[in-house]
Amino acid sequence: MMQPLEELAVLKHLQEPSARAFLLLFYTSQCSLCKIAQARIERVMQKNTFEMDFFKCNLDEAPTLPEHFGIRSVPVCMVYNQKGEQKRVEYGLKSEGVYESMALSVNPKKGDPKLRLLGF
Length: 120
Hints:
alpha/beta; Glutaredoxin
């Protein structure tokens, strides 16, 4: 299950990165594509064992984050490495393969993401 983060927790997590890589899904509560994206990411989480955290943030409850990140549409999925550096951003609904590739891109021990189906 993806861990929900509130607005301040997202900003704190980005300012004080942990030793683990993480994936962050931004969504809104009324967005049907966001619900599908979340379900796809959770299926990816169940299929593999990743050495990273999976977070989600409801932008309905985080009014300053869209401007901070330049978000104009949802869902938006971002992945950060262990150093807190953003490695990849995907806007819109993507396939499970894309979300898996994003997770693998910051988990080099789990396989080469270039060898995986990217889904686009």
